[in-house]
Structure formats: C-alpha cells, structure tokens
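Co-fold these.
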Amino acid sequence: MVDAKAVHRRGPCIGVDIGGTSTRVGLFQLLDSADFVLIDKFLTYQSYEQQIQNIITSIQSTGLKEFAGIGVSIAGRIVKDGRSVIVAPNLTEYVGKPFAQDLADQFGCSVRLAHDAVCGLLAEKKFGHMRNFERCAYLTVSTGTGAAIQLSKASTTLTSSIEIGHQILDGNSRVCLCGQVGCLETFTGGKQIELRYGRSPAQITDSAFWEIFCDKLALGLVNLAMLTRIDAVAISGAIALNQPPLLTLLQKKVNAIMRRASLELSFAVLGENAPLVGAALLLEVSEDFILH
Ligand SMILES: [Zn+2]
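Predicted complex below.
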C-alpha cells in the first residue's frame, strides 16, 4: 500500500488521536511496527486555538527539530481534500479551521488528517487481523457509531469513511441526534443511550438491553456486508471493548441472518491504540487513496 506519492522524508513521525474526550500524541521512530512512545495525553479542548496550541507544545516537548510528518486522527468527518474538518458534532469549533496548514506551518512537514475510523482501519489492516482480507471494515462503537471500509485489488486500495451509524433501520421511529428518524445510532451510540436511559452503556448490565443492542448492530453490519461485500470487520471503541461478551453475541446474530455470505467479526488487535497508530500510517498512504 506504500505509494510513490507518499512521504519519504527521514525522521520520526508524529501520530495524534483526537477523540471527543481526550487527545493523545505519539512518537513513531518507524512505521514498520505499531510501537510508539506516548508523548502526551490531555483532555480535548473544545476551543480550536487551544487544541492546536497544546498539540504544538506536546510535539515541541520531544526536543526534535525535524519530522517526516504528522498524522492526525479526528472524531469527525474531513473535507475531501483532507485539510480540515467538515462535520464534528462533538468538536464543532474545529469545523472549517485550517487544521493541516496550521501544523504544517509550525513544523514544516507533511500533515495528514483523517476520520478516526479510517485511521483505525489502516492500523488494523497493517498490524491486525484485517491484513488477511481484501475487503474489510473497522467499526468503532463509542460516543457515536462510526466505520470505514477498505476495498483492495492488486496494488490499488481505497479506504473510505462511511456513515454506518446513520443508516435507517426499518420500523425505527427514534429521532437521531443528526436529525434523521430511524438511524442505527439511536440504539448503539453512547451519547444517545446516555440521553435516553440516563446512564452510560458501561453502567447498563440488563441483558435484554444488550440483546437489542446486538440485534440492531447485527442488522447494520449485515447491511454493510451486503452493500460492500466486505468479509471481515475489526471492532473497537469504548463500548465494545468494555463488553467482551458482545463480540460472540454479535457474531451469533450476524450468522443467524446471513445465508450466502459470511462476515467475520473480531476485536481490533490494537484496541484503543488503533486510531493513534493509524494516524501515523496516513503518512505512508497517498491522499489519492483515502475517500474522506
Ligand atoms: Zn442519525
């Protein structure tokens, strides 16, 4: 997947993972392993200016002068050209700001941005179980329900962010935070669950709740498999990672629906580090092969 147009400057790389709650900054000496040194972790600032300044300060704290590049994973949708954020319900002040340019001006190196699910998928594809599949996806079950798919043939690989959480489920009359009626995320999004039940998913132990949760998510995954013909999904995100039994239950429900194809589910091998590792990996994938 390494492309001729990708970055080949010498020096370490920086990966930044900006979640709705916290931000982590990692230093990568090489991109041929998932190993990194965690430079900093801080609560994500809602203010764009404060957030950029904190990222800059973190990177400067390494004392290094030259970087091969900086890759940033963001819990939000990125503009087609990969330079700024276009939709981020939890980071609204970042929308339209010159994110990539501001970091590039500061450090004089290549800067790449992508949706966190795209980054997670790049990491799982290179270092996890997804390396065995030409058509695969990465699903994050967290505050929201996000995903990315990757379709490959020979030397061409397209990775695309998709709106899995906002697919419509028949018969669902719940209003989603996005404004649509019937979205999958009304059942699986951490924020929407908390608003509806007054408790975070981690505090819900009722097995009937998790049965319905998995019923809906299984439908969403089977729809995804039918529309894209993906063969496997790496699952991550706080809700999924905190509920180990969820994987078996979800696989059982997926298997019960599908007839002429199958979908192999597994937890992301890199767990919560996948988006951070994948952020750095953006630097070896041409922008032409990422559909934001
Ligand atoms: Zn929605």
